[in-house]
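[09:14] KT: can someone run the structure on this one? pasting the chain below
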Amino acid sequence: MNSPTHRRPRRIAWQNVLTVGSAAILISAEVFGAAFAGSWAIANLLALGTLGARVLDGLFVLCGIVVMVQFVRAARRVEPFTATD
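[09:31] RB: done, structure tokens below
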């Protein structure tokens, strides 16, 4: 019952970390660029003014953060950051 269990040491799979990180940078540039462009376009279309544009910026950036968190979580399932030797 109290026998020691031998667990293999886990190491960081740097190639997977770099792959996911690089993809996240690329996708985040697109997501946040679209967020700012979309908020600017909608604010101008609806004549919301500067304050309305900033509010939409905040809302769309929050949506972008949610998208990026979901992307990284899904990517970690495909490309795990740790591996056993």
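[09:33] KT: thanks! The CA atoms of residues 1 and 7 lie 16 Å apart.
[09:34] RB: yep, looked fine to me
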